[in-house]
Amino acid sequence: MTTPVAHLINGQFISCPQARLQDIFDPATGLVSGQVELASPATVESAIASAQAAFPAWRDTLPLKRARILVRFQRLLEERADEVCAAITAEHGKVTEDARGELSRGIENIEFACGIPELLKGEHSKNVGPKIDSWSEFQPLGVVAGITPFNFPAMVPLWMYPAAIACGNCFILKPSERDPSAALLIAQIALEAGLPPGVLNVVNGDKEAVDILLTDPRVQAVSFVGSTPIAQYIYGTASANGKRVQALGGAKNHAVIMPDAHLDNVVSALMGAAYGSCGERCMAISVAVAVGNEVADQLVGKLSAALGRLAVGPGSEALSEMGPLISKPHFEKVRGYVDAGVAAGAKLLVDGRTLTVPGHEQGYFLGGCLFDHVTPEMSIYKDEIFGPVLCILRVSSLQEAMDLIDAHEYGNGTCIFTRDGEAARYFTDLIKVGMVGVNVPLPVPVAYHSFGGWKRSMFGDLAAYGPDAVRFYTRRKTVSQRWPIGGVREKAQYAFPA
Ligand code: NAD
What we know:
With 498 residues, the chain is α/β, with parallel strands linked by helices. It folds into 2 domains: 7-249 and 457-479, Aldehyde Dehydrogenase, Chain A, domain 1; 253-438, 3-Layer(aba) Sandwich (Aldehyde Dehydrogenase, Chain A, domain 2). It is 39% helix and 23% strand. The protein has 16 helices and 22 strands. The chain has helices at 41-60, 63-79, 81-92, 96-114, 116-119, 155-166, 181-192, 207-215, 228-240, 263-275, 293-309, 328-343, 379-382, 398-407, 421-430, 466-472; strands at 7-9, 12-14, 20-26, 31-38, 123-129, 132-140, 143-147, 170-174, 200-202, 219-225, 244-248, 253-257, 285-291, 347-350, 369-372, 389-395, 410-411, 413-417, 435-438, 454-455, 458-459, 474-482. A 7-stranded mixed sheet has the order 14-15-16-13-12-18-19, with helices on both faces. It has a 6-stranded mixed sheet with strand order 9-8-7-10-11-21, with helices on both faces. Strands 5-6-22 form a 3-stranded antiparallel sheet. It is globular, with a radius of gyration of 25 Å. The protein binds nicotinamide-adenine-dinucleotide (NAD). Residues 147-152, 156, 174, 176-177, 206-207, 210, 225-227, 230, 233, 248-251, 282, 384, 386, 412, 453, 457 line the site of nicotinamide-adenine-dinucleotide.
């Protein structure tokens, strides 16, 4: 057994002999592949102290110098992409090509952060009063923390800390304990690129570590991405402790298929969006709403055929298109939802429960599942399953499809497939969802926009990455300045200055 994955604090790998350990599994085999140390409160506190100590010098480092380190980080990360992607696949299970996609979307955020000096410029007004000038500047917060989910072990941490440190903050990352190695490796590469010790720290752990980050008064802000119940807990606890919080949660993303859509392209899009990464994406399409029975009948026929061709296997094998689920408990949970859907009367057209991958019988493989005739009260419709399960709902109009989407508790992503510009415009104007695609199944904003859902998919006002991140990781200070003219005696003024 290799040494447990530990922590990166003040530029050093830190391991604590008394730490609690948790097994890490290879999802393709079901075997234990390593262990991760779960940080004690004292370990987290030492990371906070290291970030706090590094902050004054990092705040005062010229923004361009901070950006230059990020340029080097981006270059080094590109050079070591194979190593990082292998670490993602080994612990998460996703296929290599998907890991590459994830990493490149993460790198995009470093590239954005290299240009942040432009967004830190602030605002200036001359002569706001007699010989008084005024300006607003955006100052870093200090020590900020990020808590991230298992499903994008490289990309989601990169949504957070490149922007935070480009703005002059020091960062503590708490990655998912289920697949921690990629995040730790990437942080190590960031340090090799020249980040001073303490500017970026990684603590591995579970709720015990998280709770320190939520309550310690030295932490100024918390970014969270994960499931909705935990997002709500993080938002409530960290806000109650006086911190700025953004907490992104779960999702149930609907695709609306209009009768005029190009169905073969819709099927290709849905296959990738529903079954890519085994459905373990917060932007995965898990519901297809067919407008009209004719389009529904054709759609299920074509989807069933495509599912028959889906290559499921270990993520490290070049021919695999879909890998395993993350863990045995999650596998059982997703399987349980499929059982519940059948029991509730939905029609299971393709049953992935019967799949076996030869030589990987203990791996957490579930084949793609397709349900037709799903109704809104079924748990397979209401809950986020986070697995390779696509539900088809049949409606008779676009308005009915939109009412369904608007009534759902989540509002992360959605899309419409159509050739009708008027329908698309009506949909994008009025749908109550944060990220919307028109013939784009996964409308994940690029790094220079920002990412955030509506309703119970996000708690907080500022979304992740992009321009919102610059506002989230800084606070505005407005200075009014006047240089009195020497020798002129000034009288007291008791009226409010006008
Ligand atoms: P999760 O909520 O179980 O865990 C996320 C993080 O919270 C992990 O670091 C974990 O250690 C920590 N955590 C777990 N339980 C905790 C507790 N009781 N107290 C404090 N911290 C706790 O989520 P996950 O299973 O790792 O990730 C999948 C979920 O993340 C899905 O719901 C998915 O939709 C969501 N997600 C959302 C987005 C988005 O942008 N909205 C992006 C990716 C994933």
